[in-house]
Amino acid sequence: MSEHPRVANVIAAMERICPVRFAESWDNVGLLLGSPDEHLHGPVLLCIDLTHAVLDEAKAMGATCVVCYHPPIFTALKRLTTQDPRQGLLLRAARAGFSLYCPHTALDAAPDGLADWLADCCMESGRVSHADRRALQPSGVQDETQQLKVVTFVPAGEAQRVRDALATAGAGRIGNYEVCSFSVEGTGTFLGNPESRPTMGSAGRLETLNEVRLEMVCARRSLALALTTLRQFHPYEEPAIDVYPLHPQPRRDTGAGRRLVLDRPVPASEVARRLKGALGLTHVEVALATDKPISCIGVCAGSGGELMEAAISEGCELFVTGEMKHHDVLAATMRGLSIMLAGHTRTERPYLPILASRLAAMLPGEQVLVSTADRDPLRPE
Question: Looking at the domain 111-138+253-343, which fold is it?
C-alpha cells in the first residue's frame, strides 16, 4: 500500500472480491460518487443502506469512503435538488467529499460472496460437508480481452509477422498470456479482376495458394486498431477478415442465487433452526408445500422472487430468501416449492463483517469498519 492510499485502492480490492462484470445488467454498481484519485481519510465504512445516520457516523469517525451494498443511485437522475430526500442525501454526500462504492449483485454473484455465505447458513455449523452447490442462474463470465475473435487467412510464410503485429494492437491476450493464437494450414483461392493488383499470382487467373487460418481473441475497444494493423501488415491487397462475437462462458460458481444439495435430507424446521442461529434471528416465516424432508435448497439474499422459477426448474424443494410477494409465495407452494423468509436486509447485513475482514486484508494499514448506524428499517414492536 502506498503512503497515501486512494479510493482507487478500495475499487481495486472490491474488484478482486466481486468484479463489477458479475453484476446483473439492470443493476448500478461500482464507484457511484467521487473520484478514484481522492485520498482515503479515516476508515472505510461499510453499510447496507446509505442514510443520513450513516453519513453522520462516517463524518464523526473521519471516513470519506463508504461502501454501500444497496446502490444509493439506481434509476436515472435528471436533477439533484433538496426537494427529493434521496437526492438531498446524495447532495450532502457530494458536498462533504464522500466517495460511494456499491457492489450489490456483483457481491451476490461472486464466488465466496453473499449467496455462498447464505447457503452456508443453511448447512450444519462446524460440520465438514461435501454438499453439491452451484449458482441458480450461472453468470456468463467474459474477460474484456476475449469479447471478439479476429480471423484472417495469410500465406504461411507471413503468418508470424501478422500474428506479432496483431499482438502489438492488443489482440491475443488471455489472462496472463499474450500473443495467443491458433493457426491451421489450408488452401485458398482467388480470381482477381483486371483492376486488381495481387501480391502473388496474376489478375484474371484463378490462383491457388497454401495459406494459414490465423485466429486471435480481441477486446471490442481494440478492434479498430487491430483491423487497421492487420491490413497494414497483411501482404494481400484485399485480406479476408472475419470478426466473430464470443459469448460469455457460464461458470458454475458464479451467478445469481445458489442451489444447494444437502448431504442428507432434513426437515424444514432444521433448516430454519440453522438459519436463525446463523443470522441471529428469533424467527423466520415458512410456507410449506410438503412435510417431506428437504434435500435441495435454493437461496437468494434480499428479495428473491425473480429466482423462484429458477429454483423450481432446478428441482429445489425449499427456497430461502429475504422477502417475496404474498401471491408469489402462494404460487410457489402450489407448485411444490416451500418458502422460507428471513427478512430482506437480515439476509444481507450479517455478511458485512466478513466483507470488512476480506477488504481489510487487501488494504494493509487501513481500517475497515461496519456501520453501527445502519439498521434494518423494520423491527418488531
Answer: 3.40.1390
